[in-house]
Write a structure and sequence with these properties.
There is one protein chain. With about 160 residues, the chain is mainly alpha-helical. It is about 70% helix and about 0% strand. The chain has 5 helices and 2 strands. It has helices at about 5-25, 25-90, 100-110, 125-135, 150-160; strands spanning about 140, 145-150. The relative contact order is 0.05.
Length: about 160
């Protein structure tokens, strides 16, 4: 490739553009500058989103490979653990009940209200909202924002029993 010829060709087209630009009236020159700025902004935006898309693609691809290998390893671990207990004849230790269950019984024993679902929209209440209700006697539905009081809970008990 002859670089001298390439530079001469670029210089020729640059001179043609400058002659065309100077022949335009002032509003044409202003519009040409605005158009060039818009094209540059469009090109920069396009390059940004392409790089961002490639970065997301690589991130989620590596994350998927990591999770795949992690769970393959976990499955292999569980398989060898089961094989160990099968061959050794030792009983597999049972999982202990968490102390969180006992803590939940402590604060639910104070009130005997059953607030499982919102009386307006029917959405199931989260553990956090149940705890807030037991602590303060008032809760707000996370979906519709309805204020739920002890009267709502008693109404639900009377409907369900």
């Amino acid at each position: 490739m002859d670089w001298e010829n390439v530079f001469n060709n670029i210089g020729f087209w640059y001179d043609v553009f400058i002659e065309w630009y100077l022949d335009q009236p002032i509003y044409g020159q202003v519009l040409a500058i605005i158009g060039l700025i818009a094209l540059c902004a469009l090109a920069i935006t396009l390059v940004y989103y392409m790089i961002k898309g490639i970065a997301y693609l690589l991130y989620y691809m590596f994350k998927g490979i990591y999770l795949l290998l992690k769970y393959i390893g976990y499955g292999f671990y569980k398989l060898t653990e089961g094989f160990y207990y099968l061959v050794s004849g030792k009983p597999k230790p049972s999982k202990k009940e968490s102390s969180q269950k006992d803590v939940q019984n402590d604060y639910t024993s104070e009130y005997q209200y059953n607030l499982e679902y919102c009386s307006e929209c029917g959405r199931k209440m989260s553990q956090r909202m149940k705890y807030y209700f037991e602590k303060n006697g008032i809760a707000y539905c996370e979906k519709c924002g309805t204020r739920l009081t002890q009267n709502h809970a008693l109404r639900i008990i009377s409907i369900s029993h």
